[in-house]
Design a protein that fits this description.
82% helix, 312 residues, 0% strand, mainly alpha
């Protein structure tokens, strides 16, 4: 891989992490004017709609180059993508709405770091349900991650200090773990961008239905929250996801995931700058442990992959 193209990929993925991290702030600000289902429903539908023109335009040009056999195969793939996208959308809907409701009780930076704990649930779920095997270093990272989560979530050494928002975010991270495991399986047989678009539309439409059932959305309130909703929808769901797809074409997967996990750091930084949120020493220690565990797990993955390549 050429050095210039790899640098290009790193820069694109770094921008992705910045956008995703700062989106936690927009989610927090948006909650000042609209309720959780309203924000998440409109945001997610906007993200899917932003991707739609790109998908249609790409499909128009690709269709001219496909043979009859390839067109038939593409139709089969599209049907599969819709089915898998709906399944993913249901999981994403649960995960994102639990996360959004957490903003009633917790801060943007704290929610970002607890959400990142899904990286530690993935290997646990892989062993329990997919019979995967992981290295000793991976389990050290899991232990460090949960230790950090404990310091971040509990103000003292008492479980009574657990914040309701922490519990909601904890559940959110479990469902993000499920989503990641599903994507690992579904993306191998589906178009990634189309899969994401269907996923976003499914999650967004369900959230909008819940919005009308449980909330009383008002146009004035939605208009007041327009900028946070637009930023979170277009920038986070639409642009950042597209940058991720493009960036990963020029960058190794292990390096890409290492860069993208920086979103939790950018969430804390933007929360401090925009919302004047400050973490306590205990919470900062928890953040540091979690981030160290994330970085260590990714560096170990890079080393392991290089050793495997050299062995071959």
């Amino acid at each position: 891989m050429a050095q210039k193209t790899q640098i290009k990929g790193i820069l694109l993925l770094l921008i992705t992490a910045i956008i995703w991290g700062s989106s936690f702030v927009s989610q927090s600000i948006g909650m000042d004017n609209v309720d959780a289902f309203t924000f998440m429903g409109i945001r997610t539908v906007l993200g899917a709609t932003f991707l739609l023109p790109f998908i249609l335009l790409r499909g128009h040009f690709e269709k001219k180059k496909l043979s009859d056999r390839e067109r038939t195969e593409r139709k089969i793939q599209n049907k599969r993508t819709v089915i898998y996208g709906i399944i993913l959308g249901l999981v994403l809907c649960i995960a994102t709405n639990f996360q959004q409701f957490a903003f009633y009780h917790s801060t943007a930076g704290k929610i970002a770091f607890i959400t990142a704990s899904y990286m530690f649930f993935v290997p646990v779920a892989g062993v329990l349900f997919l019979k995967k095997k992981y290295s000793f270093v991976t389990w050290i990272c899991v232990a460090l991650g949960f230790t950090g989560l404990y310091f971040l979530s509990f103000k003292t050494n008492s479980f009574g200090s657990l914040n309701k928002g922490d519990v909601l975010t904890f559940v959110c991270s479990i469902f993000f773990c499920v989503q990641i495991l599903m994507i690992e399986r579904f993306s191998a047989v589906c178009d990634g961008v189309k899969l994401s678009c269907v996923e976003f539309y499914t999650a967004g439409i369900i959230s909008c239905i819940l919005m009308f059932v449980f909330e009383k959305p008002e146009w004035a309130s939605i208009k007041a929250a327009a900028f946070p909703i637009l930023y979170s929808g277009i920038m986070s769901c639409g642009i950042a996801y597209t940058l991720q797809i493009v960036g990963q074409k020029y960058c190794e997967a292990a390096i890409a995931s290492l860069i993208m996990c920086m979103e939790s750091v950018f969430a804390v930084l933007t929360s401090a700058i925009v919302l004047s949120e400050r973490l306590t020493v205990r919470e900062t220690t928890g953040c540091a442990l979690m981030f160290f565990a994330i970085v260590l797990s990714q560096i170990w993955d890079i080393i392991k992959r290089k050793n495997q390549l050299q062995g071959n």
